[in-house]
Amino acid sequence: MTESPCTNGRSVAGSDVIVIGAGLAGLMAAVHAVRAGARVRLIAQGWGQQMVTPGWISVCDRADDDVIAEVRGYAALHPDHPYALAEDDAFVCGIEVFRRVTAEMGLPYTGRRKDGHNMYLPTMMGAIQHAMLAPQAIANGDLTDIKEPVLLVGFQGWRDFNPTLAAGNLKAQGIDARVCSIELPEVQHYWDMWPNDLANQFDLAHVRQAVIRQMKSHVQGMQSIGFAAVLGMDKHMEAVDELSQGLGYPIFEIPTLPPNSAGTRLSKRFRRWLLQHRVRVQIGHPVVRGIVEGNHCTGVEVEALGHRNTFYADHFVLATGGLYNGGIQSDVSGRLWEAIFDLPVEKPSEEGRTGWYHDQLLLPRGHPVHRHSGIRVNKQMRPLNPAGEVVLDNVYVVGHMLAGFNPLTDGCAEGIALATAYKAIRTALELTE
Which of 303, 343, 292 minimizes the C-alpha distance to 43? Predict the structure, then answer.
């Protein structure tokens, strides 16, 4: 059988890899290392930002046609952008491996039927966002080729989703959206539940059947039926399939306020997959210091109850996030620093916080402090000092830590995570095609 260019190549059994951070970039770095045969330890203070994101994968939101072609063109024009640094179509391979692994996990991600184009997905406010991939249930809500009315379902009194508001905003954009509200008689006091708690209730068959009974009279003539993204946690696909079969129409989900169940499901499935593949997963004990000899890292110190533990490895992947995630720290003096290895941090101004922000709050390209703050790396994802020299030869920086893009406004945060995680592990383990 011919190998895909996105396979892991030769085995590297015997290599030890420590991944620091459990956001999407860190999780995928651990996955790539496992698939290559390395021994892997994942250490993180928390489960990253999946739980506050919609759960979909933004690769290049502004692309109107072929997303991959748009990324390649942009990378050619912006050599310092992470997509350009990752090279070799790393984002294509990162996406391919992500889709394979999430399918293995039982949480398949999909895109438009017209391959390579962005989907048009509704938000809980009734806006339309572009994304290349999404969990199957959210992707079912793609509004690209909508022809019949869609029905948005609310739970009476539940605080986290207002279908009337969402439908009104969708109608203003030419989408025929209808509304109905139902009660959840099998669930007590659900009006005050967090989305994840309500999702756990939809793992129960009798709750799903109660919804089907109430919905039967509302669904005629609809193209599809949209619920808030609470349709099950551990039995998510079972819940979606049962509702679809019981109502006779396709079912889709709309992301909610954080914590968003779609992102929570993804983190839980990743954790299960990593544990099944013998990864040591440590969540809640932060890495506090790297142990460095010259330009080489030998280990990291991890905070535990009343003491610190030291773990050693051959390679280290730093995926602790940017300013909003704690990987880069700041203070009132305008100083920015990386919290574990004290790597050089690029910043928008050398004179305090001057130039960090524009006068207007909401801007399409965001503020300089978000675009120009981060770690500069070379094409092997190794961190650089201001002179362009490698600081640590076995540390690799990925995801939101990187300078050269704004994860808040550029519409490519997840694509950067997938591309740079893929490239970092291929570099670290010297993988060949």
Answer: 303
- pTM as predicted: 0.93
Q: Which long-range contacts (CB under 8 A, 24 or more apart) does 208-216 make?
A: 208/239, 208/242, 208/243, 208/246, 209/246, 210/184, 210/185, 210/186, 211/182, 211/184, 211/243, 212/242, 212/243, 212/246, 212/247, 214/182, 214/183, 215/153, 215/180, 215/182, 215/247, 216/247
- The first and second tokens of residue 245, run together, are 């079969």
C-beta of residue 415 within 8 angstroms of C-beta of residue 400: no
Spell out a b/e string for 366-379, using b for 16 or more CB atoms within 10 Å of the CB, else e.
Answer: bbbbbbbbbbbbee
What pLDDT, in 10s, does the model give residues 245-279?
999 999 999 999 888 999 999 999 999 999 999 99
Q: Can you spell out the DSSP letters for 276-341? A: HTT-EEEES--EEEEEEETTEEEEEEEE-SSSEEEEE-SEEEE---STTTTSEEE-TT--EEETTT
Tens-digit pLDDT profile for residues 163-219: 999 999 999 999 999 999 999 988 888 888 999 999 999 999 999 999 999 998 889
Which structure tokens are listed for 132?
A: 């290349």
302 touches 5 (CB < 8 A): no
Respond yes or no on whether the N-terminal peptide bond of residue 259 is cis (omega within 30° of 0): yes
Inter-residue contact 126 to 199 (CB < 8 Å): no
Over residues 286-293, the mean pLDDT reads: 96
**Is residue 133 a contact partner of residue 99, using CB atoms and an 8 Å limit?**
yes
Whether pLDDT at 315 is above 90: yes
pLDDT for residue 134: 97
What is residue 10's predicted lDDT score, i.e. its pLDDT? 52
